[in-house]
Design brief:
The protein has eleven helices and twelve strands. The chain has about 270 residues and is an alpha/beta fold. Strands 3-2-1-12-9-8-5-4 form an eight-stranded parallel sheet. The protein has a two-stranded antiparallel sheet with strand order 6-7. The protein has a two-stranded antiparallel ribbon with strand order 10-11.
Length: about 270
């Protein structure tokens, strides 16, 4: 199996970053990660972040940037991540008014094209990071496929989150292969689901809701190799699809472990597969 370079989505260790940004980057590198994907800069300037990545031997491969933030000032916001050295920038999540099934989804389609053009001018590539709400049908096609059919591949590439593909009802490996040649970055995420999925799952990724505590017990994110995902199959599919990087993400820690311990377990598991 191909030995992919492995990045950590830093949202996984956001509490650590808030306490000690530089120290957390050092720990991520010490665990064996080759790169990082940002989810905020925690008040640091692009120049500072670029230097910290360089001094710690981490590739700043990508960043998750809220859609509305990028749309508010595309040149400035994307330019900051270009200055850090990010090759990719991703739309990470859609708030309800921009999701499929609402009038705002057309704004998402139009905005993705605009942001893709801006990223291209800056020497980057725009990605889209899915959840499960894109797996609703529009004219017989999943909304996620509508997005990729509408915005051309030279302006928008995939960042398939394999956990959410599975939760959305599709086989992650098959879906990664479906976008062969358009899947430079694949999100590796494991989970455990017992029974029905919670009605309000997004509280688990920091989205507040009117959610009953007992609903959380049916679903949890897990370190890689500790959940229900067939990671060897997903990695084989990522290789077949031409992926350049895989990115580990765990939205919330579990199994009594800290976020950094979960990141370590995931890395140790991946080392057994390469």
């Amino acid at each position: 199996m191909k030995k992919f370079p492995i990045a950590l989505q830093l949202y996984s260790v956001r509490g650590d970053l808030e306490q000690d940004f530089e120290g957390t980057l050092k720990k991520v590198k010490a665990l064996g990660y080759d790169g990082v994907e940002f989810a905020g800069l925690y008040g640091r300037s692009p120049a500072e972040v670029k230097e910290l990545c360089a001094s710690n031997g981490l590739v700043p491969i990508s960043a998750h940037v809220p859609f509305v933030d990028m749309m508010a000032d595309p040149e400035k916001v994307l330019g900051d991540y270009a200055a850090i050295g990010c090759k990719y920038v991703a739309i990470p999540y859609l708030t309800e008014e921009y999701r499929p099934g609402t009038p705002g989804f057309q704004k998402t389609l139009d905005g993705a094209r605009l942001l893709g053009e801006t990223a291209k001018k800056l020497g980057m590539t725009l990605l889209y990071h899915n959840h499960d709400f894109e797996f609703v049908k529009i004219g017989g096609k999943y909304a996620l496929d509508v997005l990729y059919d509408t915005v051309p591949a030279d302006l928008l590439q995939t960042e398939l989150d394999t956990c959410w593909v599975n939760v959305g009802g599709e086989d992650p490996s098959a879906y990664v292969r479906k976008y062969a040649g358009r899947a430079p970055v694949v999100h590796l995420k494991d989970f455990y689901l017992s029974g029905e999925k919670p009605e309000q799952m997004y509280e688990l990724i920091g989205i507040e809701s009117e959610k009953k505590e007992e609903e959380k017990k049916t679903f949890e994110f897990r370190p890689l190799g500790k959940g229900m995902q067939d990671m060897p199959a997903i990695l084989a599919a990522s290789e077949d699809a031409g992926a350049e990087w895989v990115i580990v993400e765990q939205d919330e820690p579990s199994m009594g472990k800290s976020p950094m311990e979960c990141a370590q377990i995931s890395m140790e598991y991946l080392k057994t597969l390469f």
